[in-house]
């Protein structure tokens, strides 16, 4: 009986993890037509984050104790994983293909290991080093370095900026997680993942409001349409896709899947996000990648997975580990859908 229920739980968790990967993978595909229709990338990011934050306000109120207990974690998630990652990611896809931008972000686990080895001066495993080498080599294929970096250099730098924002969040979360104790010195319960997401969106919306200045946005564009590989799609429909499916639904299903599976298994499924995003961009936007780029993308994902799996654990608390769009460190590792940064 218990075995049957456990199998059903894992099956449901796998289905939810796949749904989450599809939902996250579609964010860039829905956002790019809006950007090409005339919306500034920062304005698209603000619409996404602010819209999701409004929907998550009841959740934030329910977990209002987090503001007092984990202010640094909430600030880090909002500033780096929400505002920073999304702003750089959406800016990058305005210049380079969606699949390439997302694959560049899969360097984040390699960058985390670099921080662990050269800044924290902790040893990393040989497997982790192999993962880093594979990720970097695969990225060289994705950007086709033999062609003299004919790719948009600014677009690549923006995508790397998104990866660095994830690293900043990983590091901050690692420090915050190591201090996770209550007033009596006992180990405190990890913060509720959906509560962290809700407040991260609120913090991100506040930061992006100051940066994007949405009062200068051309709101009339949302009443028009945007081109998607030759077809016209209502702009409001694309915005709804970004807010409801690629943010709210993606996070909720991701969190539940981790609880039904495990952080490691959910992290493996999360690697499919880059594949899904590339496939959707191919079909819906007509962004075709060459054979070397596809091979390089597979190598990047392989290296990111190895780096994630081989990430070392410090004696006093877990190190940030994960791949691609997200990894959360510290006490919330494995609770935020493998720490997914919203895409």
Spell the H/E element sequence.
Answer: HHHHHHHHHHHEEHHHH
- Structural category: mainly alpha
How many distinct helices? Answer: 15
Tell me the span between the first and last alpha carbons: 39 Å
Please describe the biggest sheet, giving its number of strands, its sense, and whether it closes into a barrel. 2 strands, antiparallel
Helical content, roughly? 55-70%
**DSSP E strands, number:** 2
Mean pLDDT: 78
Major sheet strand order: 1-2
Low-confidence stretches: 176-180, 312-339
What features would you describe in this structure?
The protein has 343 residues and is mainly alpha-helical. Helix content is 68%, strand content 2%. The protein has 15 helices and 2 strands. The protein has a two-stranded antiparallel sheet. The termini are far apart.
Give a short summary of the structure:
The chain is an all-alpha fold. It contains 15 helices and 2 strands.
Highlighted features:
single chain; 15 helices; 343 residues; two-stranded antiparallel ribbon; mainly alpha
Lay out the secondary structure.
Layout: H1 2-25, H2 27-36, H3 41-55, H4 57-62, H5 65-69, H6 71-93, H7 98-105, H8 108-119, H9 126-142, H10 153-178, H11 193-212, E1 225-228, E2 231-234, H12 235-260, H13 263-270, H14 272-285, H15 291-309
Antiparallel strand pairs: 1-2
Helix pairs in contact: 1-12, 1-14, 2-12, 2-14, 3-6, 3-11, 3-12, 6-10, 6-11, 7-10, 7-14, 8-9, 8-10, 8-15, 9-15
């Amino acid at each position: 009986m218990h075995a049957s229920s456990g199998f059903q739980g894992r099956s449901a968790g796998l289905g939810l993890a796949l749904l989450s990967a599809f939902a996250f993978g579609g964010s860039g595909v829905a956002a790019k037509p809006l950007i090409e229709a005339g919306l500034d990338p920062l304005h698209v990011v603000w619409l996404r984050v602010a819209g999701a934050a409004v929907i998550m306000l009841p959740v934030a109120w329910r977990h209002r104790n987090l503001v007092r207990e984990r202010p640094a974690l909430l600030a880090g998630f909002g500033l780096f994983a929400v505002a920073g990652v999304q702003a750089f990611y959406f800016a990058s896809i305005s210049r380079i293909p969606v699949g390439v931008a997302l694959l560049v972000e899969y360097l984040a686990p390699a960058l985390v290991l670099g921080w662990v080895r050269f800044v924290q001066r902790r040893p990393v495993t040989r497997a982790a080093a192999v993962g880093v080498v594979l990720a970097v080599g695969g990225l060289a294929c994705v950007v086709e370095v033999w062609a003299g970096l004919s790719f948009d250099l600014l677009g690549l730098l923006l995508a790397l900026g998104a990866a660095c924002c994830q690293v900043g969040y990983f590091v901050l979360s690692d420090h915050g997680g190591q201090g996770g104790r209550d007033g009596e010195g006992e180990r405190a319960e990890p913060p509720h993942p959906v509560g962290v997401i809700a407040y991260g969106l609120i913090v991100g919306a506040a930061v992006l409001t100051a940066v994007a200045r949405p009062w200068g946005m051309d709101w009339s564009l949302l009443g028009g349409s945007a081109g998607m590989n030759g077809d016209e799609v209502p702009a409001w429909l694309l915005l709804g896709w970004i807010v409801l499916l690629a943010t709210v639904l993606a996070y909720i299903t991701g969190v539940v899947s981790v609880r039904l599976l495990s952080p490691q298994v959910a992290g493996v499924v999360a690697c499919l996000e880059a594949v899904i995003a590339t496939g959707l961009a191919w079909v819906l936007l007509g962004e075709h990648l060459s054979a070397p780029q596809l091979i390089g993308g597979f190598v990047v994902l392989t290296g990111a997975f190895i780096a994630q799996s081989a990430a070392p654990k410090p004696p006093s608390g877990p190190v940030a580990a994960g791949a691609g769009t997200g990894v959360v460190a510290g006490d919330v590792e494995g609770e935020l859908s493998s720490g997914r940064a919203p895409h």
